[in-house]
Amino acid sequence: MKASRLRLGMNLWPPFLFAGIRVEEISPDYRYARVRMRLRPWNRNFFGTHFGGSLFAMTDPFWVLLLFHQLKGEHVVWDRAGEIEFVAPGRGTVRAEFRLTDEHVEQVLERTGSGAKALIWFDTDVVGQDGTVIAKVRKQVYARRKRDKRLAHA
């Protein structure tokens, strides 16, 4: 699927649409993504700052999506764990960026080459308009090479 089509679909996806989360960019090579969320009445908490669940949601699918496309469908890839540390109150527009490096991909390929699983941690900062870190998010992604179905049935 073209990255531009995926971006459009994600912007219409109800969990993002109703939280006010917008995917601004997914690079055509699936190595980079940028997402933003404006502070709106439907995504603010009791204290008038960004709801923590929305901050976590805006970072949720990207590491898996980027890695899956780099591995060209030859691996099972999914989220295994996640954690968030709230650093400062989120006001205004917040953004997060995801950059998948050659080292990330090589690490997964090396670990999964023999059929083993790879568990890789990725870090993402959610930042405010002035560059202040609002939240630090860590996601653990699971990857394993798909088993050859022809061999499994032999």
From TrEMBL:
Transmembrane feature ranges: 46-68
Name of the protein: Acyl-coenzyme A thioesterase PaaI, contains HGG motif
One Pfam family matching this protein: DUF4442
Keywords per UniProt: Membrane, Transmembrane, Transmembrane helix
